[in-house]
Records
---
Amino acid sequence: MTSPGPALAAVRLTRRFATGAGVTDVSLGIAPREIVALVGLNGAGKTTLMRLLLGMLRPTEGTAVLLGQTLAKIPQRTWSNIGHAIETSPGYPDLTVRRNLEISARLRGVRARQAAISVVVDEFDIGGYLSQNVRTLSMGNRQRAGLAAALVHDPRVIVLDEPTNALDPSGVIRLRESLLRRSADGAAILVSSHHLDEVARFADRILVMNRGRLIGELPPHTPELEHVLFETLRSDDAERGL
């Protein structure tokens, strides 16, 4: 039996900026039921890569592929299978949490909207905040509400940029359990993070990014993972003469 191809892929993606920062010749593939963590220092290009994969930025060279189709050829309905939170939590700050979830579900064509909303409300423990405007929430609860909105439609591809930011330990555990459940149900998941100890708990692979390039992969259960990461970054800088 032939194994399915990647649900999310980059094929030699490059994006150059006038400042010189960006992404250079990045290729990767994430299969259904796989969680991949993307790690690196600030400015490594993680967010830029995620934006390229989702069509938020146009590449200078290369191609992004979602669910077997290049971005230029993806029909509108396919986007209802994508869930993402990039840089800031999605949502309308002057609307209630409930209204944000309803809008997110409606835009993605969810039919049983109230049932879907109930699932993510329980998943992220935000039932006590449904009637509050997003703007009035703490940073942590705003993050929970944003993640719930990004995942309310059970997407087949999930891309999350630093999703544990502002979350308390309970929120981090809830997010971890959510991603593991969704992966088991068939989703392909890409998560960027600064928290190596956390991503090592749930990622199948950890990709290392430095100065716009993918430079290696670390097994999640590597002993002294943080030390190995920084040695990997240092060695890459030394090879480039930096």
---
Amino acid sequence: MTAGTGSGDYSGAGTEPYAIGLLRSMLQIPSPSYGESRLAAHLVTVMRELGFTAYVDEAGNAVGEITRGPGPTVMLLGHMDTVPGTIPVRVEHNRLYGRGAVDAKGPLATMICAAADAVDFHGRIVVVGAVEEETPLSRGAVHIRRTHPRPDALVIGEPSGWQTVVLGYKGKLDLRYRAECPPTHPSNPVPKASELACAAWATLLDVLGPDAGHGDFGTPGPTLVSIRGDLSFAEAEFSVRTPPGYDSEALVARLSERLPQGNLEVINTVAAVRVGRADPVVRALSAGIREQQARPALKVKTGTSDMNTLAEDWHIPMATYGPGDSRLDHADDEHILLGDFLRGVDVLTRALHELSEHFAPRNRLSLVPTMRTSGED
């Protein structure tokens, strides 16, 4: 699909009233996972008004494309879906409240405005509002990975804080354990299904070892997601956040050997992702932060995002960025500071210009991909 230039229709997406009004309109449309269609239609309308060629794809993603002459393709991908729950949309003390203000409509609105503002960018920008990021399978990002040509660079929209760039995320291994036993009296000394499910969790912790936990990027972190059942049937779900290079298959094999009763099933697995400080996207975002008279911070996260999903096949420069405090993800008082949101638009706009210069033809022969999935800088 050929994108429009945007120069004729664009009229100040980065100005305060427009950017804030866009984010407010997005927050006013509920979009829990599997219910993003209204928001997708709204974003297509918005992007068309800004000069993008925009459409809803087969997976339900909102996709906008804008081309300003020959040059690289940069994809900006955030997600439209939120966890369930309603937060009244309002502005109080320079804070905009609403479900998704931080995770992740704020970063997605930042991407739309920055793409429209980056009038000096030479090349093609693709903005994606993805569906179902908050679900185990990330269907929206998987569809983009399968159907779109690999871009030259990628920015994932998640709340990093406007002064911070995220270099990577842990991977994830989701497991389900089920046990069935003949009905029996509670005093019977034979194993019961409920006991087997509890023992399976204890066995997982033992297999992972005493250093496992969520406090370190380099170690696996287990979570007991759910457990339910009775004496005759029980089911438990476990999630293990895995560091770069972790052998998930070996973990499943060892755990299966220790659980001769019941059935252990792998629900989903995604590898960790980690880029270096010299990654072109990291450098471009850092330059944008410095232009705002701030010192950029770099960090890794123990959760997962669509960066993991796309990095499985796209070995390209990438990083995650977006205004908002990630400690407010899914919180009952989720909100974003309006000043931080507007600074985020300026940072990403400058980063797009930097990427356009980096990938200019004179630099193409010297480009060395720096993305990797393990190790320190």
---
Amino acid sequence: MEEIQAGLRGVLRLFYFVLVIGTYLTWSFCCHLVIRDEDKRRARFSKNASFFCGVILKLFNMRLTVVNKPKDGEKFLLVSNHMGFIDILLMCSIFPMLFITSNEMRETPFLGLLTEMAGCMYVERRSRTKILEEMKSMIHALQKGFRIVLYPEATSHNGEEVLPFKRTLMMAASHAGVPIQPAVVNFRKVNGEEWTMKYRDHLCWYGDISFATSLWKALTLKSLDAEIEFLEQIHTTPEDDRGLIADRAYKLISEKFVPVKGRTEQGQPPAEMETT
């Protein structure tokens, strides 16, 4: 009976999800046609994405608690742990932001369109030459007042531990003259229960799990209680050791991260997938 109820719930939510996404894409495309200035268009895209992510959270019965929310108008480069598209929805619903994602994501059917209409910025992490050029684009966006979200793990993980941080793109903050704002995402309750291995694959999109499979599992959940805590800001200069800066951000986030209960001793390192 429980599986039948979950299936029916998934079908109903899938219908609503398609309806919301269709509305989001239609409205964003209209903005694309009307707004000619690239910066104004990107700002409008990020506001649209924030609004519709909030709508999706309500449809999915996902409740978010935000701790130490930054003041309105405060600018920064936000870095956070990353477990899949659920934490993107949660983060995006707080306030408009631009997300850094990979060129591979941009080339992925459907997901590429979703990210482009959200104003995402794309990077090619496999090329040092290109990534340095793309960091300049991040610096310019930060200087223009955009809040940018960077997932320095460069992939999503399975909820067992925060992966080591990549360093290069985090230095965009110092060159733009804004602080690094660490934040930690934690899942507190799933279907009213503790977050255990039973629900791990309902919330984490990692390894070779397809997006369709991950989405369906998330749709079948009754509820989710999550928390995003904004931690102590890190102020840097271009002369600072980027390794030390990355280690400090990692320490702040990993110490506050609550892993899935029942995890294996050494954890299961996720395969490389979409970098966001």
